[in-house]
Amino acid sequence: MLMVVLPGPFYKYEVVDLQTAFSGFKFSLYAGIAALILLIIQILFKRETVSLSSTLTAELVDAAEQAANNLGWELVNVDANISIAKATDTTAWFGFKDDVLIRVTDDATNV
What count of other Cβ atoms lies within 10 Å of the Cβ of residue 73? Predict the structure, then answer.
């Protein structure tokens, strides 16, 4: 959104030249169109969800735990009874800690 709005004021206050302003505007429109196409594709190919059994839910929580281990995340809590896996990821560059919560549900509204 900012890439569509900012080229005008940037050119007006001589931060960028006219060609750069139009290039930024043009590529932001391309990105917006691509995002719209991806949204339409997602809407067209959306599948109905099926109800998960408790055995399958436990297997998915185990798979989430294994994926977290493979990604190098620090596991905080894994509880198959409530279908969650909590982990902490540390970024490589600045060392920020990000909390990750994986919740397995069969409710289509909690995607």
Answer: 19
Residues 68-93 have pLDDT tens digits of 888 889 999 988 888 889 999 988 87
State how far the Cα of 13 lies from the Cα of 82, in Å rounded to an integer: 56
Given a cut of 60, whether residue 50 has pLDDT beyond it is no
Contact call for residues 37 and 9 (beta carbons, < 8 A): no
Residue 56 to residue 51: CA distance in whole angstroms: 10
For 14-46, the pLDDT digits (tens) are 788 877 877 877 888 888 889 889 888 887 877
Nearest residue to 25 (alpha-carbon basis) of 37, 42, 8? 8
> Residue 88's pLDDT is what?
92
| CA dihedral angle for residue 43, residue 47, residue 48, residue 52, rounded to 10 degrees | -130
Burial class (CB in 10 A: 0-12, 13-18, 19+), 68: buried
